[in-house]
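so my prof wants the structure for this chain in the tokens format not the other one, which i didnt know existed until like an hour ago. anyway here's the sequence
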Amino acid sequence: MSIRWTYAFVDRPADRVGAARDFWTAVTGTGLSEFRGARDEFVTLLPSDGDACVKVQGVGAGAGGAHLDFSVEDVGAFVASARDLGAVPVAEHAGWCVLRSPAGLSFCAVPWHGEAVRPAVVDGSRLDQVCLDIPPSAYDAECAFWAGLTGWEPLTGSLPEFRVLRPPPGLPVRILLQRLRDERPATAHPDLACADVAAVLARHEVLGAAVVAHGPRWTVLRDPAGGPYCLTRRDPETGGPAPGVSDETGSRTRRP
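here's what i got, hopefully its the right format
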């Protein structure tokens, strides 16, 4: 089932989502759509050019994280295919559906509304990846699930704990699957591709982000709402390796 567009959702606790909206509009150079949902919990980040591909949600329980929305022409057929691969529907709405992967990661099937043009790079970075953090016992099965669901090209870097699912040209958000060191629930977070991680980091700190850990080509941060995300040394135009980096994952050491 062909995926026509992808959205990265930044999920944050409802009592802190205002800080998340302010931060993510600033770092992506976007504005806010009208709020949607019974509690005004959904909002789309609107770029100055191109089609939106990032949304923010206030969640009523838990610490939040991130999830993917897949825009398709036939939501019912996509949901049926996901179920055949092991996904479990969680909430079925009029025209769209929330599901969970075999490891418990949420994602949504939503109608495609003609989105086709990726937003431009903003200040040397682009939010173009959702990283799925998966416990070792579920990793191989989860990689197989997401590859089967999307049909995207799988890529393996020089570090065995990372695999990338690269979408066809034109789709704005790809998937990185990371095998965790220990057994804990699967989570997800957004990644930004950066031409110069240090320069982007300085800007994010001014906007209220806090550094959690540094690696040779990546930095883990928390946004002002407390949610984790990463800056990665990748070409923000292509999503591929930055100059001097030899593989699709950015040759990163393990994240905490």
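also thought this was worth mentioning. Helices lie at 17-28, 75-84, 139-150, 197-206.
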